Amino acid sequence: MTDQRTITLRLHADPAWIPMVQGVAEQCGAVFGLDHGKALRLTMAVEEILAYLAELTPQTPLELNVTPGASHVDTTFSFAARDADLWAMNITACGADCAEENLQAMGLLLAARMSDGLEAKRDGASVLLRLRMDRSYPGLDPRRAERFTPRGAASFRPALDPSLIKEACALATALYPQSIVPPDFRTPGRVVDRILGGELFGALAVDQGGNVCGFMTWEPLSATSVSFCGPYVFTAERAAVARGLTEHLVGAVARTPVAVILSRMPTEDLPREEFELLGTLPLTDADGASAPLNIWYRDMREDNGLAVWTHPELNAFLHAEYERLFLMRDIHLVSHQGEQVAGRSVFATSIQPEASQALLIPMLDGADASDTLRGHVQLLASEGYRNILVHLDLAHGWQAAMAPALLENGFQPRVLLPHAGQADVVVLQHVGS
Amino acid sequence: MLDLERLVPAHVRSFEVYTPSKPDQELMRLFRVDHLHRLNNNENPLGPPPEAARIIQGFPPRLTPIYPSGDAYALRQILAGRFGKSPDQFLVGNGSCEVISSVIKAFCAEGDNIVTADRTFAVYEWVAEFSGIEARLTPLREFGFDPDAMLAARDERTKILFVCNPNNPTGTWWDTPTLLRFLDAVDGRQIVVLDEAYFEFVEQAGFPDGMKLLEQYPNLVVFRTFSKMYALAALRIGYLCSSPAVVDIIRRTHVVYSVNALAQQAAAAALEGDAAFVAATRAMVTAGKERVLALCRELGLPCQCGEGNFVMIRVPCSDTLLYRKLMARGVMIRTMTGFRFPGWIRVSMAQGEVLEEFCGAMHDVLRA
After folding, report:
1. CATH of B50-270, one of 3.30.70.1140, 3.40.50.300, 3.40.640.10, 3.40.50.2000
2. Could you give the angle at the alpha carbon of A11 between the alpha carbons of A5 and A15, nearest 5°?
3. Interface pTM (ipTM) of the complex?
4. Structural domains present in chain A
5. Is A303 part of the contact surface with chain B (CB cutoff 8 Å)?
6. Residue B259 Cα, gap to closest chain A Cα (Å)
7. B118 touches chain A (CB under 8 A)
């Protein structure tokens, strides 16, 4: 649903409108709380996207929405496109001769560089490009902390008090390795804004003296799943606080549409007996250091089976994972059997620069899937992205059928995420990226 | 173009669609088992009482073209006779879920709220929320409803207080003094619903009988069901009893003809000479609890065993994972995550051989 504060512009993909779009972006950025530098970057990013769309899908009707988030500004371009036009959504769309001098054709990539996040989604013929530009917040002053003995038993409550939230961010940052603390915690004001704005949720453990004993946050991952960070425990005795925070999370999402909860940044305090380990992604952080990521999950209700598709080349992996996880699935095999595959393949790319991570999600099948993937990997690797991942939603036979193209381009299946899409999702990772 | 965002109220959009479990045959196929013991829904596996079974077996097809009594006329007469009330004090519904809905619709408007516990039968909360009514949830205290917390949660817009006695899933219960203190404190300012779905299983001397309090407290509404002790869950039939004035109001929001003829006849028959059946069921439940408590001791598992035909067990793993592992052995239990008891399961009592199979499966799974 559109936010009442959203500024909407309807136009066509025509470079003549670039000055107008720049003006809207600059004004909205300022009014919605971006500092001058960020507003300028937003202005440049929307210019790149419009120029890009104007070249690749000239005169396409577009809708531009600029919406203030709790701690950021969202800018979306939405438009209807035929399958043939969707190829333009590949960040490699400028083709083999794409080079630095052809900057206009590299618009999506440039926009990604200038923003704090870029994602593309397709729903039927509707395509949506979303740019996220975060507001600037003062950073946390470094401090030392030691775990303490609480005064009396801790109680658990929703995180709503800004002072307690900021204290919790500071303690988590001081007591846990940087790799398992969300970057937002280093700008606690952002965390407060996101929680009070309803984008992020949190639980606090507080002792009878009012001291913050623990913290945990979560946010929607999809319509039926949430991802969580923590639990972060600040007391010497850790298990009870960790368990209380986790139970608070489960209680908060029980009896809601949430079907599964998945870890994003789990700590060693997570009561593992309550969760199931899906696997470990051997990620690398932006500095090149190894940062393996365990992914834990728990169902919020009984899992009574699903039907999923798989290509024979992923069949062994899936069977082994389903067997290990005790998940009952009707697995249907799918593969190309000589049929004509129309059009060219399209992959949406979501980029998280701070994590040096790019996530590819298939939008459209095509005979050139392998070539398109190769192009994506080359481009993203050249941009310095260390972690290139692909999500395949096994509800869709055509996505499952892309397995050979992924495997021949150096991707390996790593983790199965139950119910993370329309059905289960397989995460593949490019080896060597 | 269909604009559901505009058409659908926010409280409906945000509500979780309840997905019932798949049919047993489908579950057995998926989990590759040749049998399935249903220990998940607190059903009574002894089946309906003999008189009810006779009615069900003999229901004449010639009656199916004819609408049932729209207000369960004959059954209300029987209930009135059994409890010493007027037939006008009873309202029969398509399971207790329907009468919950009727009560909320009768007393709540936009901006009103209901108060109940956070970890109890979910339908009070669900019906309120998808009706756009706030459900104020108070934490259980030592697994039981907290009367003081419920009283404190009220405001001038509170219309109904729902108390599940004994509570599903914890089996905890308010004794008579506790209930009377609560009703006196409410002092007629709100409707108090006393859900006694598991009343017939209780053998504790101090357990209050809501039916005997109705004259003293005209704001009290008692729920009973034929789905549990009387094993008529498939027919969906339950009822409420209250003061004539309150029932007259609830009747206005209650859909007539919602209870089918077979259910009405079977329910009436179930009450005929039911003492032996009730005693046999209670004996099965008592023996079952002893067996399950022994299992908990053997495996070192904490448990919560109160009144009702069920026991809650704290398990050393995700309850949803345990569910899948037990299903693969043909045993279906209820996970408690949805009840806000993560890491707990609820097991319905059944015949000895069934519970032996459950106990064996628990040993295998938890010691593997």
Report:
1. 3.40.640.10
2. 120
3. 0.82
4. 1-136 (3.30.565.10), 155-274 (3.40.630.30), 297-433 (3.40.630.30)
5. yes
6. 28
7. yes
